[in-house]
Amino acid sequence: MWFTRLSIIRNLVKRNFRRDSVQLLHLSEEAKKISGIKDAAVVMGTTTNKEILTRLGLLTKEGEAASDSDMILAVVADSQPRIDEGLNQIEEMLLRPPTAKGRSFYSVEAALQAMPGANLAIVSIPGEFARDVALKLLDKGINVHLFSDHVPPQHELELKQYAKSKGLLVMGPGAGTSIIGGKAIAFANVVKKGKIGIVAAAGTGLQEVSVLLSEAGLGISVGLGTGGGDVKTKIRGLMMLQCIDALERDIGTSTIVVVSKAPDSDVKKSILGHIVNDTKKRYVTCFLGPENYEIPATARERVKGTKTLHAAFVEATRNSTTDGQQGTAKQYTFSRNELAALTDKAVKGLSDKQKYIRGLYTGGTLAYETLIILGRLLGPVYSNAPLDPKLKLADSYRSTRDAIIDLGEEEFTAGRAHPMIDPTIRIIRLMEEAKNPEVAVILMDVMLGFGSHPDPAGAMLGAIEEAKKIAQADGRTIPILAHVCGTEQDPQPLSDQEAKLNKAGVHLFPTNAMMAIASAMISRRGTLDKRAMEDIYSHFLISF
Amino acid sequence: MSENILQLFTSELKVINIGLELFRDALEAQGVDVAQVSWQMPIKIEKEYEDILSKIL
Fold first, then answer.
1. Closest approach of chain A CAs to the CA of B36, in angstroms?
2. Of B9, B39, B41, which has the smallest distance from its Cβ to A250's Cβ?
3. From residue A106, how far is each of A99, A300, A438, B28 by CA, in Å?
4. pLDDT digit string (tens) for A179-190?
5. A121 to B34: CB separation less than 8 angstroms, yes or no
6. Which end of chain B is less crowded, N or C, counting CB atoms within 10 A of the terminal residue's CB?
């Protein structure tokens, strides 16, 4: 943001004053609308927020001195009286009592008393306090969806062992998505009801697979998120195994999809062993990673191994559908020729200098899937959350060569709402990438569903237009690709969101994997290693 | 041992939401019965005050 010389920027710091990041996001939006205010932000004083305020031209030395537990009220106006009036109004907003909606309580005990039949709790409080609250709930026989991050692994183990002993679920910590009884829990989509159950240690992985299955005409019985920590050696896949056992017994589920970034090797072995030896239903395992993993020959008819979300979707479709539905699913995999035709125009518009791919992701598992595909097609790809630690960006705020950025990682979210809700961080990054003459193509995910921004495509349109103008002024064009992960039944209907992006000249892809391959074709002018491409089609887009 | 879980899959959801009101709003929009807990962080007391308090109380 650039302000005139007459603009005054002021930061007011409120010591030890907290509100949750989503409340502050809404407050910032309201503050921007105050008459006489040119721009405003209300944020906690974390390093991430100070970095972002700096990039927005909103940080002063008072704000710079704020700590994590302080709140910064940043305002820009033309005169001191307007600044003072703006700050007064923001302070009044902060003191306003929350509008009472439905049933609201000040303690867990009071809520438990008021709702004796409660069967699920969602916990999204700071991780260090989550254990005590979750134990209280498990004691009362209530399943827990633990959204909180930063729960110590020892607490996670204790909670999951206790839940197992009581035959209950502890989904998470760090569980972003579940679908139970046809309802979207936390960040999840409105999907058709059906016979496919999903267990996932990867939230946006569950979203992508459930959405694709739903849009292809199949449906989901249950989707359970376990949190990424579950498949580490310390937790031993306790909840993933518990969820598999529950879905195995659930009469509403006929096929089970198991999704995770590559688990620790001992956990992977134990989960696969359990599926192969102790279950009877049809399974699709999706352990995301570049390597194949062993499924015993005797089980290969019943258990399909995959390593991308796209392949998990394709195999789950093959497992559960009639020929007609398989036909629908086939539309999601473009042939090489189809991809070449789709990307041809973008390739022709590039200058010689434009070489690199930049991925700006809000969905961590989708970013990870893209790294796997690009890694096979192109070799080393940099990231703030890379497959190989050697390819970690020295500075997450600055891309190098081909780079895929997971904007949901800690360095972008400490004290802020997730970028699936707050588009600010991606807008800033898109502007920066557009200024770089070496960038050949930009790709992004647009996550729909409950929990997400009410109009995520619309929120990016201004920035997309601006990015194109920046490139144009420099004599370039930048192709922007997007995959919208959502359904027609979501609060933000898929077709509306796609139409907005399409009108803005964004190239749309039906799956994240297809978008990743297209970005590789564009950046390398259609000349990709033939063997690598063959491998992608025969081992990455279907079971291996 | 998974009877509780199987029941969860088939029963009407009754949810206690502790923390982000965003999740309460999303569930209510789907017609789910929700009890919201406005959780507050426990107040941190400096060690010397804690010692004094523990003597008084």
1. 5
2. B9
3. 14, 52, 54, 19
4. 999 999 999 999
5. no
6. C
